[in-house]
Description:
The complex is a heterodimer. Chain A is mainly α. Chain A is 71% helix and 0% strand. Chain A has 9 helices and no strands. By secondary structure, chain B is mostly helical. In chain B, helix 1 (3-37) runs antiparallel to helix 3. The longest helix of chain B is centred in the first third of the chain and has 35 residues, at 3-37. Chain B is elongated, with a radius of gyration of 20 Å. At the A-B interface, helix 1 and helix 2 of A face helix 1 and helix 3 of B.
Amino acid sequence: MVHWLFAVAILFVGMCLFAEALAGREVWHMRRWRKYLWPSLTFALGLFLWPVMAFFTNSAIHMYAHGSWADALMLAGAAELGLVHGRLTSPLWRLTWPLAFVVTGTAFIVHEQNPWLFARSAFLHHLIGWTFIVGALAPLALVFRPRSAAFQAAFATVIVVVSIQLFTDRDVAPIFGHLSPLAGQQHR
Amino acid sequence: MNTTFVTEAVQQHDIRAHSISLLGPLVAAAGIVWAIVQPNRLTLLHPRGQGFWWLAVEPPLLLVAAGIVFTLVVARPLLADLERHRATTR
């Protein structure tokens, strides 16, 4: 359930990024509240990962993984807030996004100890991890071409794809007909 | 100004405006289709024995809500600004 709540927030961020790519940054920034919208949401998602880490994890490696995502998301959100506000001026701050993607992707892959076809959640951990790592190319390209609508759309696409992957998560469910007996009884 | 260039710019603007206006409805429609394909995901239809969180967090309804909120809060003001921007740069 927590995955689905995060999925809808991530989807909303992705929709905002798509809208910004379509409208152009100049139009997107015409209203003061709007330019802070998705960076604030990103920062808030990072904040909400802390209670997830504290209350929904059952092993040390899960805690490290969720803690590192929380750090990376808060850093990227805060850097983006600083950039849109004008407090930060160096475009190199946008490197926090590919950093966040790589940290998140690595944490997803490292903290999943089961193989791809063990169960749906194991498959999704591997898939989301690699999506983030490969998808890091989009925000990395934006560091060098910040006004490119194509790269902004690619960034938005990665975010939306991750949200779709999170929406497909289940407690215990098969993946392509495979469900390890060690995963337990299928439910939800 | 070249009329061909102006026509192309207006068409491009229209495509962008249409795309923005479609984002929210598309997401909401995806939620409705999901609810029809997997009605078991809507625990409100069979609430007996469900805990609070299973009743509160229903993915198809979350999609519909995201689509509606995006349309009302983000897309409508953005489209108005896009139109205003086009009027001032015309």
